Amino acid sequence: MLQRTNVIWLLGALLLVRIIAMVVVPFADTTEPRYAEIARLMMTTNDWITPWFEPGVPFWGKPPLSFWAQAISFKLFGINEFAGRLPALLAFLATVWMLWRLAASVVNAHVAYATSVVYCGMVLTFLAAGTVMTDPYLALGTTWSMVAFYLAPKENVWYWRYGFFIGLGIGLLAKGPLAIVISGAPIGLWVLLQGKLMFYLRAMPWVKGTLLTLIIALPWYILAELKTPGFINYFIVGEHFMRFVDPGWVGDLYGHAHKEPKGMIWLHWLAGSLPWGPLALLLLIGHMFRTSWRLTVWHAVKQPVVIYALLWALVTPVFFTPAGNVIWTYVLPSMPAFAFLMGWAMVKLNNGKKWRQLGFNLVMWFMPVAGLVFSVLVANNNDLMKTEKRIAEYVAQQPQNGDNHNWSRLYYLGSKLEFSARFYSHDRAKPVQLDQLENLAIQQQGIFVAVPTNQWQTTVAQFGARLQPRIENMRFKLAFLAP
User: Fold this and answer.
1) Residue-wise pLDDT tens digits, 298-330
2) Which residues contact 45 (CB under 8 A, 6 or more apart)?
3) In the chain, what are the domain boundaries?
4) SS (H, E, C) the chain
């Protein structure tokens, strides 16, 4: 059995390392600074209906729940990495608590400990626990729906009886109608397989619950369409249909389609579930070589709660199998169910043999050690990541010329500004073309120019000694261009 004290130490180490990473690791292009900048604009404009991709350009790609949470956190704790990531950590902790309750209620506390260890210690869940993106909120919503539906008949409390519907509302505001699919599909299949349709029709408050879901989510959808007409068509048709069926979908207004081979979602799952996913596959394959072991697996998968968790774990990767436009975070809603199954298996297999205990301990401590090493490396060298934080900080620390902040004199050579440059300069840095630099340098009595490394020699050839190099990162060389 897993020792309670050891598990608490491990979970504490995972939480501590995650918080350290939230503080010292900068936002790296493109996802985190893009969403953080949208949240910063929401906070500065006090527009809580329409997320803005940039001033004048509405962001129709995602609902606003994550941006609401981050904008509120920015207001409370300032515009920094920790504040932007804190809401995701809170959503993650709420998800862990729900998993704990499910495992403790249907099995025992030992499985609840093991489930928590597995869920907190996978690569994808560990990263999502403190990352500025929408997926942790979708995982919170779907986990609440799935856990609540199973426990509502057993524990007659409001957060389970109505939790299924609250979770759907959260999912609709976090990611959209996808939440209904990845919660409703496994539940529907399980109810039919168990022959419990009439039981659940009577057991759940369907009318009041459905109204609750609509009250939570529908007003924002209506207000968003009224304020920026075209949102519903782009979000429902484009993001939920065209993105799914067309691997090279060119309608994306905010980037490009992530074209992948069909079935790639399973490799994403394998990578995201490290180190526990590959271990689970090895254990499962190993159990196929002995009759007694095969019978053990067969008896296990016939239990109603195991079938429920298997359907929950499989529906997301199965749903995205025919899609050619996927990223690895899509599998996050399936991870709680896998953690429950793996945690249960780990307790069953940890039968006192020293080699098994040693193996499980090595796997359990993989993530906190790896996370700490990564955080220390990045804290001492931000340039290991694609981030413009150090350039923005350097410019901010230079003596000012006039009343405007130095960020107003920071220009990036090229037609497009990196998201991290926008966020760390509070959207004051601007893109610029080579032929515009001369006039800007004269007008502002000198400017800071971030030059792509592959254009440095060309820029030096034009301006000579007036272009004074300062610092550089993996993409740009920063220079001061004297008037």
Assistant:
1) 777 789 999 999 999 999 999 999 887 788 999
2) 52
3) 4-377, 389-481
4) CCCHHHHHHHHHHHHHHHHHHHHHCCCCCCHHHHHHHHHHHHHHHCCCCCCEEECCEECCCCCCHHHHHHHHHHHHHCCCHHHHHHHHHHHHHHHHHHHHHHHHHHCCHHHHHHHHHHHHCCHHHHHHCCCCCCHHHHHHHHHHHHHHHHHCCCCCCHHHHCHHHHHHHHHHHHCCCHHHHHHHHHHHHHHHHHCCHHHHHHHCCHHHHHHHHHHHHHHHHHHHHHHCCCHHHHHHHHHHHHHHHCCCCCCCCCCCCCECCCCHHHHHHHHHCCCHHHHHHHHHHHCCCCHHHHHHHHHHHCCHHHHHHHHHHHHHHHHHCCCCECCHHHHHHHHHHHHHHHHHHHHHHCCCCHHHHHHHHHHHCHHHHHHHHHHHHHHHCHHHCCCCHHHHHHHHHCCCCCCCCHHHHEEEEECCCCHHHHHHCCCCCEEECHHHHHHHHHHCCCEEEEEEHHHHHHHHHHHHHHEEEEEECCCEEEEEECC
* 30 cis-preceded (ω within 30 degrees of 0): yes
- State how far the alpha carbon of 406 is from the alpha carbons of 207, 396, 428, in Å: 57, 6, 9
CA distance 178 to 193: 23
What is the per-residue pLDDT across 183-218, written as a single tens digit (0 to 9) for each?
Answer: 999 999 999 999 999 999 999 999 999 999 999 999
Task: Please tell me the pTM assigned to this model.
Answer: 0.93
Residues found in the chain: 483
Tell me how far apart the alpha carbons of residues 415 and 44 are, in angstroms, rounded to a whole number. 25
Measured between alpha carbons, how far is 154 from 362 in angstroms, rounded to an integer?
Answer: 36
Do 392 and 421 form a contact (C-beta atoms < 8 A)?
Answer: yes
Evaluated on CA atoms 168, 172, 175, 181, the torsion sign reads: positive
Q: Which amino acid is at 53?
A: F
